[in-house]
């Protein structure tokens, strides 16, 4: 951690703060600070090693809005993911464990951000912000809500209904079945969500397995027939069956309408 700043470091931080820049990259400082490219690279290197700026990728850095107290700085989660996605021209939505916690389905607070997006995949870190990026097709992005953090930054989350659909769709990644069925049942009973929204998001963002499992669940919950028919119309006739709870033996009553073995 860097505790003393040299003249160029102070000049750089003053420059970006006066202009209210949150991101600065290679080539931006050479003219205003009268630096050679080599001097600029060395300046970025020193500030990054001193934890006064944070690298998004090679040649692009997040910078603090003011000189940090204690001599080091880390971006907020909102700033880190927003600027990463802006740099890649990506759409994103926070999903999975973060959304489960946000909506009160799971009390566990994740130590990283999980995000569907249309550009990047894999784990990465921006400062102390750990990210798990899940690349999906453009068609699987949507069903979102935008929140404003206390710092005035914005984050895009999957909506409550979309989060429940993903808990069924992406059960293997998030280890959410059969828990997700209880979440959905409780939310329907308490009217936190409407069956119409679940059916809409299931059709738009789910797959065949999601439609089958959601249909069997909503039928059990007494959802009106017109909504069940909307789901059923998305399915082709088949004699195959899938498990209500994947990973458990396919033993139990078979719901023939949805092709689901009720094995729990």
Task: Compute the number of helices.
Answer: 10
From N to C, what is the helix and strand string? HEHEEHEHEEEEEHHHHHHEEE
Quaternary class: single chain
In total, how many beta strands?
12
Question: Biggest sheet, strands in spatial order?
Answer: 4-5-7-6
Mean pLDDT: 95
CA-atom Rg in angstroms: 24 Å
Percent helix range: 25-40%
The SS-based structural class is: alpha+beta
Q: Which ranges are low-confidence, i.e. pLDDT below 50, for 5 or more consecutive residues?
A: none
Largest sheet: 4 strands, mixed
Separation, N- and C-terminal Cα atoms: 54 Å
Q: Number of folding domains?
A: 3
β-strand amount:
15-25%
Gross geometry: elongated
Helices and strands, with pairings:
Blueprint (H helix, E strand, L loop, with lengths): L6 H12 L4 E3 L11 H13 L4 E4 L2 E3 L14 H12 L3 E3 L1 H7 L10 E5 L4 E5 L2 E7 L8 E5 L5 E5 L1 H10 L1 H4 L4 H12 L4 H11 L2 H13 L4 H8 L9 E2 L9 E3 L4 E3 L2
Parallel strand pairs: 5-7, 10-12
Antiparallel strand pairs: 1-3, 2-3, 4-5, 6-7, 8-9, 11-12
